[in-house]
Specification:
The complex is a heterodimer of chains A (258) and B (185).
Chain A lengths: L2 H4 L3 H9 L12 H10 L1 H5 L6 H16 L8 E4 L4 E4 L17 E2 L2 H8 L14 E9 L2 E11 L12 E9 L2 H12 L3 E5 L2 E16 L2 E16 L2 E7 L3 H9 L5
Antiparallel strand pairs in A: 1-2, 3-4, 4-5, 5-6, 6-10, 7-8, 8-9, 9-10
Chain B lengths: L7 H9 L3 H23 L2 H18 L9 H20 L10 H4 L8 H5 L2 H12 L3 H12 L4 H8 L3 H20 L3
Helix pairs in contact in B: 1-2, 2-3, 2-4, 3-4, 4-9, 7-10, 8-10, 9-10
The chains are: A alpha+beta (258), B mainly alpha (185).
């Protein structure tokens, strides 16, 4: 190393870094693709309905009935309900239109969460009804899949997870628990296994990233806590708490998990 | 009429109200730094491009939640970094960052800036090599702060930590950089 760098103060070293002539990868042309995407999505946003939640639910029900009845729909209708989009495709003879539900990182109901995941979410009885449910997407080996998150506020039996206002956060998505555990291990450097009734549980604790719904949408935040990961059917379940492992295992195994 | 470029907040307000041209201006204004932030996280050109693109689309739909009294750039870059982290963690593409000096790959056509000229080529390569040996989190914080020139507050926003935490993280990263620089090559 040159004597010049060695003798630099921190400020001077920072200054030297700031003047480095880095060979950045050439920036691709982004604007046309982005603008094409937001423009093509404009139609559903234009018919966005500022409805109250009960009215939204009614509208979802109406849309569902419409779909079930196989009503002839002359044109493509998209009803943007904020958290989900019900899309009624043009009705082809012999085919029932299929609803497509898109998680957009906004609060949803448990029922909507079940629709997104393709199965009801099993709630650990001790946790009760979650205080907040939201959905976004995550990239897995299978591509981009919906991810549902349920959060319970901190309370006497659920100590606050440092870095959040919650006492428990359950994340559910279709994917590989083993892969998810490796990602957590990268953050915490700790990973334990336990097999109960044939189900393999992964346990880790420490500082790691967790996605939470904030005023700026779903963002990753750094939290300090314990995580239990396991697989239920085709879904990976990830429970964040500040409780000891034995306690969390009791919560999970008493939820009806096979 | 030619005039001063519109402020970010005004462009964001217009974009939120449906003015596509205003959002396109923001994309063009911040496309490069968004791509570079994503590249620092993903270390992969394709992933960085996808991350930046997806983040701009998400930011567009999040505009109603953007507070006009707060700066647009760190708000956007935080979304970019989140998107890039999401992809990097899921696609397992955290290969080593291959930072290089531009001088090392150029044909020597471009004249170096006075600042660059002030730092000898050998010193530049030494610094780059040291950066490449740091852990990804250390490279990220140094990259945001010094290579991309984000302010301390912006760096904190992109890392999603408080300013004090970002400062201490940067300080520790600089300490480790110095250790690498002083260690055996």
């Amino acid at each position: 190393m040159s004597e010049r760098i060695r003798s630099m103060s921190d400020d001077e070293l920072g200054g030297a870094l700031a003047t480095l002539d880095v060979d950045w990868a050439a920036t691709p042309e982004l604007a046309s693709e982005i603008m094409a995407r937001v423009s093509s999505d404009r139609l559903p946003r234009m018919v966005r309905l500022p409805l109250s939640r009960p009215k939204r639910i009614l509208l979802i029900a109406a849309a569902t009935l419409l779909l079930l009845a196989g009503a002839a729909v002359a044109a493509k209708i998209i009803i943007d309900l904020g958290a989900i989009v019900v899309e009624v495709a043009p009705n082809h003879p012999g085919l029932l239109p299929t609803p497509s539900i898109v998680p957009t990182g906004e609060p949803i109901t448990l029922r909507e969460a079940g629709i997104l995941l393709g199965q009801d979410v099993t709630l650990p009885p001790r946790l009760g009804e979650p205080d907040r449910v939201w959905a976004d997407t995550v990239f897995t080996d299978s591509g981009e899949v919906p991810r549902v998150t349920l959060a319970w506020r901190a309370r006497p039996d659920l100590p606050q997870i440092e870095g959040t206002r919650y006492g428990a956060v359950l994340v559910v998505f279709e994917g590989d628990a083993n892969q998810a555990s490796k990602e957590l291990y990268e953050d915490t450097g700790v990973l334990r296994f336990e097999t109960i009734d044939g189900i393999e549980y992964y346990w880790t604790r420490g500082t790691h990233l967790l996605q939470l719904l904030t005023s700026e949408g779903v963002v990753y935040v750094r939290v300090e806590g314990n995580v239990l990961l396991w697989r239920e059917g085709s879904h990976t379940m990830r429970l964040e708490t500040d409780l000891p492992k034995a306690e969390v295992l009791r919560i999970v195994t008493s939820s009806g998990t096979p | 009429m030619e005039g001063r470029p519109l402020e970010d907040a005004e462009l964001a307000r217009r974009a939120r109200d449906g003015d596509d041209a205003a959002y396109e201006d923001l994309v063009k204004r911040y496309g490069q730094i968004a791509f570079r932030v994503a590249w620092l996280v993903t270390h992969d050109r394709g992933e960085a491009e996808d991350s930046a693109q997806e983040a701009f689309v998400k930011a567009y739909y999040a505009l109603p939640r953007f507070r006009p009294d707060s700066p647009f750039r760190p708000w956007l870059l935080k979304i970019v970094a989140n998107e890039a982290r999401n992809r990097a963690r899921s696609t397992r593409r955290r290969q080593g960052l291959a930072l290089r000096t531009a001088a090392a790959v150029s044909d020597g056509d471009a004249a170096p800036s006075p600042e660059t000229a002030a730092l000898a080529r050998e010193d530049q390569e030494t610094l780059i090599a040291a950066l490449n040996r740091l852990s990804p989190p250390d490279r990220e914080v140094i990259g945001y702060r010094f290579l991309l020139g984000l302010s301390e507050a912006e760096t904190a926003d992109v890392l999603d930590v408080r300013v004090g935490t970002a400062k201490s993280r940067l300080s520790r990263a600089m300490g480790r950089l110095r250790t690498v620089l002083e260690g055996p090559s």
